[in-house]
Amino acid sequence: MNIEEAKLIKASQLGDLSSFEKLMLRYQDRAYRIAYGMLGNPEDAKDAAQESFIKIYKSLGGFKLQSNFSTWMYRIVHNTCLDIIRKQQRRQEIPIETKNPSNNEGYEIPLEDPKEGPEALLKYKMVKEEIKNEILKLPIEYQGVIILRDIEGLTYDEIASVLEISEGTVKSRLNRGRKQLRKSLAELLQEG
Predict the structure, then answer these.
(1) pTM assigned to the model
(2) pLDDT digits over 51-80, tens only?
(3) Cα 148–40–158 angle (5° rounding)?
């Protein structure tokens, strides 16, 4: 954590809304990408990010500057998304496995940008969309680790802290999730 961030956190803990706003501006895109990756719907992701920021503000007084703020924040976003998923499942709305984002909002999967013409660009966009759809079909425990590791770039230790699981469990879930993702993408390639 850098000095400027620590100052923003301390000021926010003392009730300075301007400092809290600056702090959240630093993390709003990441929070949204995590929420979108877990929920698969732009509106739900925006709601989850907003709800997370409210929870962060209310519990910021208990945050100790001894750990990374980002890890603490990711845990709140992740848990907020899990709460939303549970509520949706109780209401028996559309299950997460069938959610399909209908626009290009949300997290970006870092693939190399093609330099060829429009056909290659279209194919590139279609592949990214298929990968996002296949991630949403994975069990939630695999979605979380894949999004946090492969899209957000968190370390195993940070993911373990966010999800409150052991580093070994992170590695195991990541391995199993990637295997399922490879298998489903290979099946898609065979169909196409």
Answers:
(1) 0.65
(2) 999 999 999 988 888 888 888 999 999 999
(3) 10
